[in-house]
């Protein structure tokens, strides 16, 4: 999860998030190079004494500053489109979870376990135990296995919500009357936090998401739910 004064992205827990971090660094380096080039050109313009103010023909330079931005856009667009298509792939998921957004809590349904359904509310400050995180911990966590493709079916019962877990690279809108889906494969165990990322009313800030990821062997021994 994020920590105080953090500048970069959270550590990746899924292959998609690793790709997103790589693309972020790739695009950031291009931005740095463009910014340095522009600032250098401005510096030369302000400090160099112009000895010839006549308009000169510079077709070669015009060709370069027309083609170069196009090449830069291609270098940014190709990896971006690759990741975009990767996020839409659904490859034979091992487990399907349905998440329903409400004002202001989440309902989860394990469709592969006889329709097990439970609600997940934020823990009030009076019920927090030592080590719990204020405004982030919930009464019922979503327990999922690692190293297995998981499909999330996301919808809403009232207004727009957004199911987001940054460390997994997930952010999918929950829309009333529409069922959106996303997939992920977690690579390491742990407890990971997210929040609703769509302004959905007065208590929008109090819709945390908590995923407890455990090894696949332990999960196969039987569903472990913190109910």
UniProtKB/TrEMBL annotation:
Residues 92-225 form the Cytochrome oxidase subunit II copper A binding domain. Its main location: mitochondrion. It comes from the Eukaryota. One of its GO terms (cellular component) is mitochondrial inner membrane. PROSITE patterns: COX2 (PS00078), COX2_CUA (PS50857), COX2_TM (PS50999). It catalyses: 4 Fe(II)-[cytochrome c] + O2 + 8 H(+)(in) = 4 Fe(III)-[cytochrome c] + 2 H2O + 4 H(+)(out). One of its GO terms (biological process) is electron transport chain. Its cofactor is Cu cation. The keyword Ubl conjugation does not apply. It is found in: Mitochondrion inner membrane. The chain crosses the membrane at residues 27-46, 66-85. One of its GO terms (molecular function) is cytochrome-c oxidase activity. It is a multi-pass membrane protein. Residues 1-91 form the Cytochrome oxidase subunit II transmembrane region profile domain. Component of the cytochrome c oxidase, the last enzyme in the mitochondrial electron transport chain which drives oxidative phosphorylation. The respiratory chain contains 3 multisubunit complexes succinate dehydrogenase (complex II, CII), ubiquinol-cytochrome c oxidoreductase (cytochrome b-c1 complex, complex III, CIII) and cytochrome c oxidase (complex IV, CIV), that cooperate to transfer electrons derived from NADH and succinate to molecular oxygen, creating an electrochemical gradient over the inner membrane that drives transmembrane transport and the ATP synthase. This is Cytochrome c oxidase subunit 2. It comes from Homo sapiens.
